[in-house]
Specification:
Elements lengths: L1 H23 L12 H4 L1 E5 L4 E4 L4 E10 L8 E13 L5 E9 L8 E8 L14 E4 L10 E3 L4
Antiparallel strand pairs: 1-2, 1-8, 2-3, 3-4, 4-5, 5-6, 6-7, 7-8
Amino acid sequence: MQNLARAVLVLFGLLVLAAVGLAFGLEGGKPSVPLTEEDVTGTWQGDRGARLEVMADGRARLTDASGWLCTGDRQPALFTGEGSWTIDRHSDEDPGILIKFTVDGPPAVQGCADWFTLAGTGKGGTAGDGSDVWATFLGYEGGDAERYRRTATS
């Protein structure tokens, strides 16, 4: 009788663990809702003064971002550029967008691109407008990456 009670207790414990696993998803807490255009379009303000505008027509404009290697001499510098974006995901990173830039002013550097990854989509956040989402560029070369927050949308 004691063995039957132990077996039932073990089975109950496994059932509880399975339920908890399903509740949190198998992706380690990553959002299961896919990233959409509405999640990324808008204006993103960096904590060091940079500004990223992601437009619904597929264009993006980054201004006054420090520590970028997209200059003609490939040295970390202040960067301003315009480019195009697509929703994409870089290997095991958070979802985000791939932005391919062309640098303003001479000499233009072709092929300068970076991943802008988002931590969350804001769909489950308290604000509900995406303003609680933060993001960074993966290829930032200036030490600690600048953190961006999307300005509130209406």
